[in-house]
Every structure is written in structure tokens, then in C-alpha cells.
Amino acid sequence: MKPMVGLLILFVAATLVIVFAGSYGEGVVRMAGYVATLALGGVVALMVQNWKNRRPGTRPPR
User: Fold this and answer.
1) Does Transmembrane helix show up as a keyword for this record (predicted)?
2) Is there a smaller number of Cβ atoms within 10 Å at the N or the C end of the chain?
3) What's residue 57's pLDDT?
4) How far, in Å, are 17, 60, 61 from residue 51 at the CA level?
5) Which helix (H) or strand (E) holds 15?
6) Cα separations in angstroms, 24 against 20, 33, 36, 42
7) DSSP structural state of residue 57
8) Is 57 within a domain?
């Protein structure tokens, strides 16, 4: 759970850089976009991994 929170914080920080760093040049905005994309991809990968590793719920016998 901690890596997912860290990646979400990184995504939010990179998004804020994209929004407010227009005066620093195109390179900064482009790199922040790359970081945001990688962070979001990491969050999705961790969510899929957690979904695949979860244990099936106990079902009552029929």
C-alpha cells in the first residue's frame, strides 16, 4: 500500500508542476509529463497486481 501512496503523491506533484511551470520552458513541462505518466502506470500496475493476488472470498457451501 505504501508504494501506491508514494506513486500517487508523485503523480499529483508532477501534475502540479505541469500546471504551474509554464514559464520554465517546454522541457520542464515535458519531463513532468513523463514522470506523471510513469507514476500513473505504476499505480495501475500495483492495482492489477493487488487484484490478481487477492484471495477469493469464502463462499458458503451449497
Assistant:
1) yes
2) C
3) 66
4) 31, 22, 24
5) helix 2-20
6) 9, 14, 17, 27
7) P
8) no
